[in-house]
Design goal:
Elements: H1 2-20, H2 26-42, E1 45-50, E2 54-59, E3 68-72, E4 76-79, H3 126-133, H4 149-170, H5 172-179, H6 185-190, H7 192-209, H8 217-230, E5 232-234, E6 241-244, E7 252-253, E8 259-263, E9 270-274, E10 285-286, H9 295-306, H10 313-316, E11 328-329, E12 337-340, E13 349-352, E14 358-360, H11 361-376, H12 383-393, H13 402-414, H14 428-448, H15 454-476, H16 482-503, H17 511-525
Parallel strand pairs: 7-10
Antiparallel strand pairs: 1-2, 3-9, 4-6, 5-6, 8-9, 11-12, 12-13, 13-14
Helix pairs in contact: 1-2, 4-5, 7-8, 12-13, 13-14, 14-15, 15-16, 15-17, 16-17
Bound molecules: S-adenosylmethionine.
S-adenosylmethionine (SAM) is lined by residues 52-56, 181-182, 184, 229-230, 249-250, 252-253, 306-308, 310.
C-alpha cells in the first residue's frame, strides 16, 4: 500500500512536469499515460483540482468504511508548537529543570541517553546537534526552568524549520516534495500581523541571532507557510509532534469528514482510512480543526492558519448537523436558544428562537473565550471541578454546547479510572452519571464523526462498563427481570464489538490499540 500511494503522488508530479514538455516524446508520453491509467484504476483515489480546493483527492470507486487509503512515513517531523518542552528524539514531554537529561553535544533536553530517536532521521540527527551545539548560548542555553511558555514555544518552533532547511542539502528530492506544497505566501504577506510575527520570531532569529545567513528570508517564509497549511499534529502515548507527509496533505478539509487517521508510535507513519462509505467521485476529506469546537472557532482557526473560509455542511447549518453544539441559553428570556442567524458570516448576529434578543458574534466570542479559560484552568483529573463547571454553565450554555461536551468527555474518561472513583468505589448515582455523559457525548459524535472514528471507539468502550455494572446491580437487587438483564447485556456486547472493531485499527503499541484488545478479551470472556 505505501508503494501504491507513493506512486500516486509522484505520478501526479510527473504529470505536472509533462504538461510543460508535451512535445518532447509523444510515444513515451502515451506509454506513461497508459501506466498512469493502470495505476489510477488500482488506486482507491485520484488527484483532482478545483479553483476552491486546489489539489484534492477523490474516491476512484465506491469505498467501504475502514478501507486503507494511505500509509506513509513523514517527509519531515518536529516537535509540536505548544509551550511544552518535548524530547527532540521521541517528542515525549521533558522538563527544563537541572535534573533533566540533556544532549551532551548541544544541550537540548532529551528524554534519556537511550532515547530511540537519537541520531535517527525522524529524531535528533547529528547534523542538527552540531548546528545547535555551535549556537548553545542562543538555543538550548535559553531553555531553563525560568523560561516562560511563549519563549519555549518560539524556540521549539524553529526546530522543524531548521530540519526542513537542512533537508535541502541532505535530500533535495524530499525537500522539493515539501516545496511543492501550498504555502499561501502571498496572502500571508498581506496579513501584516502574521507576517511580522514570522519575520521577527523566525526569519530574524535564524539569520541574525542563530547566524544562518545563507537561509533566504523568502524561503524561510515559504517554509513557515507550508508548515502552517500542511502539518499534521500527531503522537501516541503522550508524544506530541508535527509532521509533513508526501501525499496525505492533499486531502481537503471538511468539519464532518469521511476519513480518519492515526499514526504509528515508532515510525510516525500516518495510517489513513475511510471512516464511512464514500461514493465514487466524492472528495476524500479530513478535518483540519478540532471536532469539539463551534463553527465560529473552527472557521476562524482555518482562516488564520489555512487561509480559507470553510463552507461545509456543518459550518453552513446553524444547528451543526443537528448536534446544536454551539447553542447558548438566551440570556434575556432564559427559555429560548441563541444560534447564529448567518453561520457563514463571522460578524453576523445571533438570535433567540423565542424572543427578540440578538447578540453580535464578536461579543459572543469573547464570552465563550472566558468560559473556555475557566474550563482550561480545571485539571483534567479534577472530578468535582469539572462537575462544578457543568453546574455553573448549565444556565448559560445548551446541554450539547461544545464546552460542556468537552467537560463531559473528560468526566467520561476519568470516572471509573482514578483512585477514589474506581468503579467498585463509586456510588450507583456516580456510575449512572458516567453512563449518562457517555451517552450524551456519543449521540453528538455519531452526528459529527460517524463511522469508524477513534472518539466513537473510545467512548463506546467507556460506556460498556457502567451499563454492565448497573445491569448487574439491578438484577441482584431484583429491580429488573432476567429478560431485561439479557437485553442490557446485548447492548454491552454491541458496544464492545464496535469499540474493538474501531480501536484495533489503531497501531499496535498505542493506548487505543490496547483498549481494543481489552474489548476483545472482555468479549471472549463473555463467550462472544
Ligand atoms: C493541506 S492543503 C491541501 C492541498 C492543497 N489543496 C494543495 O493543492 O496543495 C490545505 C489547503 O487546501 C485548500 N483547502 C482544503 N480544504 C478546503 C476547503 N474545504 N475549502 C477551501 N479550501 C480548501 C486551502 O487552500 C488550504 O489552505
Amino acid at each position: 500500500m505505501p508503494g501504491r500511494k507513493k506512486n500516486n503522488h509522484h505520478h501526479k508530479n510527473k504529470k505536472h512536469q509533462k504538461s510543460h514538455h508535451k512535445e518532447r516524446n509523444p510515444e513515451k508520453e502515451q506509454e506513461e499515460d497508459e501506466q498512469e491509467q493502470d495505476q489510477e484504476q488500482e488506486s482507491p483515489f485520484r488527484i483532482e483540482h478545483s479553483d476552491i480546493y486546489g489539489r484534492y483527492l477523490v474516491a476512484s470507486r465506491q469505498l467501504e468504511a475502514g478501507e486503507l487509503l494511505i500509509t506513509e512515513e513523514p517527509l519531515a517531523i518536529g516537535p509540536c508548537v505548544s509551550g511544552d518542552p518535548v524530547c527532540l528524539g521521541c517528542y515525549q514531554p521533558v522538563s527544563l529543570d537541572s535534573t533533566q537529561y540533556r544532549c551532551p553535544g548541544c544541550q537540548w533536553p532529551l528524554c534519556r541517553d537511550s532515547c530511540p530517536g537519537i541520531h535517527q532521521p525522524h529524531g535528533h540527527t547529528s547534523e542538527e546537534c552540531q548546528l545547535y551545539g555551535e549556537r548553545r548560548a542562543v538555543a538550548a542555553g535559553l531553555l531553563t526552568d525560568r523560561t516562560g511558555p511563549a519563549e519555549v514555544r518560539d524556540l521549539y518552533e524553529l526546530v522543524m524549520i531548521v530540519r526542513i532547511l537542512l533537508l535541502r542539502q541532505r535530500d533535495p528530492e524530499q525537500f522539493a516534495a515539501i516545496e511543492r506544497m501550498e504555502s499561501h505566501t502571498e496572502e500571508r504577506r498581506k496579513n501584516q500581523v502574521l507576517w511580522q510575527h514570522y519575520e521577527q520570531k523566525v526569519v530574524q532569529r535564524l539569520r541574525e541571532v542563530w547566524q544562518l545567513e545563507d537561509l533566504q528570508p523568502e524561503q524561510i517564509h515559504q517554509v513557515c507557510g507550508i508548515l502552517d497549511v500542511n502539518c499534521f499534529e500527531i503522537g501516541q502515548n503522550g508524544a506530541k509532534a508535527r509532521t509533513l507527509y508526501p501525499s496525505a496533505f492533499l486531502l481537503a478539509h471538511d468539519c464532518s469528514p469521511n476519513t480518519a487517521h492515526t499514526d504509528h508510535p515508532e515510525s510516525y507513519a500516518i495510517i489513513l482510512r475511510t471512516s464511512r462509505r464514500v461514493r465514487e467521485r466524492e472528495a476524500l476529506t479530513l478535518s483540519y480543526a478540532y471536532t469539539l469546537q463551534g463553527t465560529l472557532k473552527r472557521r476562524s482557526f482555518m482562516h488564520e492558519g489555512k487561509l480559507f473560509w470553510c463552507v461545509c455542511q456543518r459550518c453552513s447549518d446553524p444547528r451543526e448537523l443537528g448536534s446544536d453544539c454551539s447553542a447558548l441559553v438566551c440570556p434575556v428570556c432564559r427559555q429560548g436558544s441563541l444560534r447564529a442567524q448567518e453561520p457563514l458570516n463571522q460578524e453576523g448576529s445571533w438570535g433567540c428562537d423565542k424572543c427578540d434578543h440578538k447578540m453580535l458574534a464578536k461579543d459572543l466570542e469573547s464570552r465563550l473565550d472566558r468560559i473556555n479559560n475557566d474550563l482550561e484552568a480545571i485539571d483534567v483529573h479534577d472530578i468535582p471541578g469539572l462537575e462544578n463547571f457543568l453546574v455553573r454553565y448549565r444556565e448559560v450554555l445548551r446541554p450539547n454546547h461544545y464546552l460542556l461536551l468537552s467537560a463531559k468527555y473528560s468526566l467520561c474518561q476519568i470516572y471509573g479510572r482514578i483512585e477514589g472513583y474506581l468503579l467498585p468505589q463509586m456510588s450507583p448515582e456516580d456510575i449512572a452519571r458516567k453512563e449518562r455523559y457517555c451517552r450524551e457525548f456519543l449521540e453528538i459524535i455519531d452526528l459529527l464523526e460517524p463511522g469508524l472514528t477513534r472518539l466513537r471507539g473510545l467512548i463506546m468502550y467507556e460506556l460498556h462498563a457502567p451499563v454492565m455494572v448497573l445491569a448487574q446491580m439491578a438484577l441482584q437487587t431484583g429491580k429488573i427481570s432476567r429478560q431485561e438483564f439479557q437485553r442490557r447485556l446485548k447492548e454491552v456486547v454491541r458496544l464492545l464489538q464496535n469499540s474493538r472493531d474501531i480501536l484495533c485499527l489503531e497501531p499496535e503499541g498505542s493506548n487505543e490499540h490496547e483498549m481494543g484488545k481489552a474489548a476483545a478479551d472482555a468479549l471472549s470472556k463473555m463467550g462472544c
